[in-house]
Amino acid sequence: MKLPLNLFLSLAVAASCGAANATDYDVRGVDFPGAANTAVYAINDSGNFVGAEKDAAGKHHAIIGNANALSLLGTNSPLGSAVESWAFSINRHGDVAGAFTDAAGAKHGYVLRADGAFEMIDEPGAAATQAYGINARGSVIGITSDSDGANPHAYVLRNGQFQPADLPGVAQTFPLSINEAEEIVGEAIQTDGTNGFGYLQGPRGRFTLVTAPGSAPEQTYFISINDRNEVLGGYADDAGNQHNFVRVHGGYEPFDLPPSFAATFVSAQTINIHEDIVGIYFDAVGVAHGFVAKAVH
Questions:
Q1: Do 227 and 179 touch, CB atoms closer than 8 A?
Q2: Given pLDDT bands bounded at 50, 70 and 90, which one contains residue 12?
Q3: Buried-exposed string 31-63: b where 16+ CB fall within 10 A, e elsewhere
Q4: pTM, whole model, 2 decimals?
Q5: Separation in Å, CA 202 to CA 11, 31, 147, 177, 247
């Protein structure tokens, strides 16, 4: 995941907004050599990014890259022998959080440290665990679920201790990003089949639910928060079109790729402290590509 769950299910009918960006970006596509599809999910403040490639057999494998190189992630760790793997977050130290599927079909969360140390993340009693975000303090967020993906529950892992992170009064909570101040953003769903609300939760648990301007009811999500409290998110309008935005000081700036990319769908995934944005776009024949958009200041 990292791509919001309900948004992922609607990709076949969604379209990008085509709006002009309030900030200028230098954008380049990212395609893993030989891959059928490529996704970029996160970028840290040093410009290192992570994601996943889908091979010809339909299996996903975590990747890591920067402006000069692109490679499979953790080939000397358990990720190297995993059936599938995804890298969803990278902090400023270079630690990566994500998920992988083992030979028995079980899904586990993980943290791969910059020094190569590998940590499996499995909440006790859960059939499946995924890690969606890691901050500079080492706090990890994600979800647990039944083995078939049903009954998801949010968690925060701090100092080796799992803490429940489901929002009260919400049917499903998907925490997608955590910054150094321990602020969490994500997707709060009250009605099946919707994107729900974007939410921002403080370190003491207080939270707000947000609907972006122009959004249809219960069709907003937040997906990333940086250490400047800038929030990346998206919404669907009344016609079902998807739009990406950056929320800065309470205002909403649109984000889209240049027309030269001819994207039929754009999903922005992470914003770093420099306002660089990474994500995924689909071309006219439905192939997914990653992108890195460097903010021009």
A1: yes
A2: very low
A3: ebeebebbbbbbbbeebbbbbbbbeeeeebbbb
A4: 0.93
A5: 31, 36, 30, 12, 17
Laid out side by side, the sheet with 231-236 consists of 220-225, 231-236, 242-248, 251-255
Distance in angstroms (rounded) separating the CA atoms of residues 282 and 38 = 10
H/E element holding 8? helix 5-9
Structure tokens at 261: 């990319």
CA–CA distance, 92 with 272 (Å, rounded to integer):
9
Q: What is the number of domains present in the chain?
A: 1
Question: Does position 97 have pLDDT exceeding 80, yes or no?
Answer: yes
Strands (E), 125-201: 128-134, 140-145, 153-158, 161-164, 172-178, 184-189, 197-201
Cα–Cα distance measured from residue 243 to residue 260, given in angstroms and rounded to the nearest whole number = 18
CATH code of the domain in which 67 resides: 2.120.10.30
Domain that residue 94 falls in? 5-295
290 near 284, Cβ under 8 Å?
no
Answer with the residue of higher pLDDT: 23 or 231. Answer: 231
DSSP 8-state assignment for residue 169: T
